[in-house]
Design a protein that fits this description.
Largest interface: A-B, 40 and 25 residues
Structural class of chain B: mainly alpha
Structural class of chain A: mainly alpha
Number of strands of chain B: 0
Radius of gyration of chain B: 19 Å
Distance between the termini of chain A: 37 Å
Chains: A mainly alpha, B mainly alpha, C mainly alpha
Radius of gyration of chain A: 25 Å
Shape of chain A: globular
Oligomer: heterotrimer
Order of helices and strands of chain B: H
Helix content of chain B: over 70%
């Protein structure tokens, strides 16, 4: 497993490098926007990857509530954290793109606003996980993930109607894409999806490692280094010494 | 500000955010490995 | 079915009676709401036309903060007296407890709103150009939207550190579509620009979706504490 991971990690890095080369050098310059348009090759694939990761979190949360699998919960938190990172990239590159092209840093259009709300919901998810000490944190977090998922379509509709009332500039405009640009876009989409999966996998391994270590530490505190139950010196036989009562020096 | 500076700003920001997160994962991993070694050193696994 | 109703009613009556006897929570909340209205009126001093545009946002943000203050103490009494443990071992369905708490909060927050709203009308010299009666369903649905999720997240926050800040942290992002609907509906009714129908329907949808979710998942939360 470890070897496969290393190979895939290297492949992912190479793919990202190739995709970036395509985006910066090979892709033709856009007619109206100029070179700034190349941000598109990073911005949209990251949004797509973040969305996929949040879906993974939702499925893992449901799996946890259904089967109480600890691995499902580890996957949920990994996907959520990685998703927030990619979502942050989207929220940073979006305004950087919008400013030179449309003269505004921000607009309440559907994609940007939905991304922002998703980011807020999942940051609150991570805060809940961090601030909640109880052993039932995974359950609470899973419920919050479900609430977040129920919220997203409502957010979408409310902004859609808001936009029909307050028409605003469309960022990341529609329209068809030059086939050469489409090719570069798809390469970057693949590269970022791969990168997202790899980072999530790495985070998952970290989470599993952390939990195993926590279990080992807990066992050590309970049983002592030689595997015997830690008891106080008093309850031991009054004749014999109590070798493990003092615990690790 | 030339618009190409915005493009570079976006690309660098992307690498910074993703790279920063990767670095934090690696550091946490190394710290866990050290803790595991300490635990093994105490004679318990 | 009758057991759910009777448990709900009993819990609700008990809460109201306890609150009415001590009245300290209500009094401090009332004063807080008044302060919020005054501070907002100081900070934003629009003319008549502007005020119709922005009053919706100001009023509902003020209500949101007042609601959070009310929601934060939802489970405080239960926590102090280990009532939740009793509920866990009783055969009473958890949804009955949740509905009772949510209704109690709804009554409390509605009371706060009923007192704050006239003050806003006075300070901003508001006069609705659209159908003013529509503000009532907006207020009812909007308040329920905040209260149902707020009561649920308050229960989730019980065992977290920084409990008081945890509730708004969880509640605000999820409430964004509801708050937007309330604000837009109020704005549209005050200015008479368009119909508030879409927003009212969206609020109704939001209420149905999240009331169902809260009822379905409250038992999970209760067992988790």
């Amino acid at each position: 497993m470890k070897k496969a991971f290393s190979i895939l990690a290297v492949f992912s890095a190479l793919l990202l490098a190739y995709a970036t080369y395509q985006a910066l050098v090979v892709a033709p310059t856009e007619r109206t926007m100029g070179d700034v348009q190349r941000i598109f090759y990073y911005h949209v694939p990251c949004a797509w990857t973040a969305g996929c990761l949040f879906c993974v979190n939702l499925l893992a949360s449901i799996a946890y509530l259904t089967w109480k699998s600890s691995k499902a919960d580890a996957l949920a938190v990994s996907a959520a954290e990685t998703g927030v990172v990619f979502c942050s990239v989207v929220l940073v590159t979006g305004p950087i793109w919008a400013r030179p092209v449309w003269g505004i840093w921000w607009t309440w259009d559907m994609r940007l606003t939905t991304t922002l709300v998703l980011w807020l919901i999942y940051v609150s998810y991570l805060v809940l996980r961090k601030f909640s000490d109880s052993a039932q944190t995974p359950k609470l977090a899973a419920v919050l993930a479900i609430f977040g998922a129920l919220d997203v379509p409502l957010v979408y509709f409310s902004i859609w109607f808001f936009r029909t009332q307050h028409p605003q500039p469309v960022i990341g405009g529609g329209g068809s894409l030059d086939p050469r640009m489409l090719r570069v876009f798809l390469i970057n989409l693949l590269a970022f999806s791969f990168l997202g999966a790899m980072i999530c996998w790495w985070r998952f391994r970290l989470e599993v490692f952390q939990r195993e270590l926590d279990e080992a530490l807990a066992l050590e505190a309970l049983l002592g280094p030689d595997g015997l139950p830690q008891v106080s010196a008093r309850s031991r036989s009054p004749l014999g010494k109590s070798p493990s009562a003092t615990g690790p020096a | 500000m030339n618009s190409i500076h915005f493009m570079w700003a976006a690309y660098i920001a992307t690498w910074a955010i993703l790279g920063g997160y990767l670095v934090s994962i690696v550091r946490r991993y190394r710290r866990l490995q050290r803790e595991q070694k300490d635990l093994q050193g105490k004679g318990f696994e | 079915m009758s057991s759910i109703r009777s448990i709900t009613a009993a819990t609700l009556v008990k809460d109201i009676r306890l609150e009415w006897r001590s009245r300290d929570a209500i009094n401090s909340m009332l004063f807080f709401s008044l302060l919020v209205v005054v501070i907002f009126s100081f900070s934003f001093d629009p003319n008549a036309e502007e005020s119709r545009q922005i009053a919706g946002g100001l009023i509902w943000v003020a209500f949101l903060f007042a609601a959070v203050v009310a929601l934060n103490q939802t489970w405080a009494r239960e926590l102090r007296n280990q009532v939740l443990d009793a509920y866990r071992v009783s055969p009473a369905p958890a949804s009955a407890l949740f509905i009772a708490k949510a209704l109690g909060n709804f009554i409390l927050v509605s009371l706060l709103e009923a007192l704050m709203a006239p003050l806003f009308v006075i300070f901003y010299n508001l006069r609705a150009l659209g159908p003013a009666w529509q503000l009532i369903p907006v207020a009812i649905l909007g308040t329920w939207a905040l209260v149902v999720n707020g009561t649920f997240f308050a229960a989730m926050s019980i065992r977290t550190r920084s409990r008081e800040i945890m509730l708004p942290l969880l509640l605000f992002p999820i409430s964004i579509p509801a708050v937007q609907s309330m604000v837009e509906a109020t704005r549209v009714i005050l200015t008479g620009d368009a119909s508030a129908r879409f927003w009212i329907v969206l609020l109704l949808t939001y209420d149905v979706v999240f009331t169902t979710a809260c009822l379905a998942l409250f038992d999970t939360i209760l067992q988790a504490e």
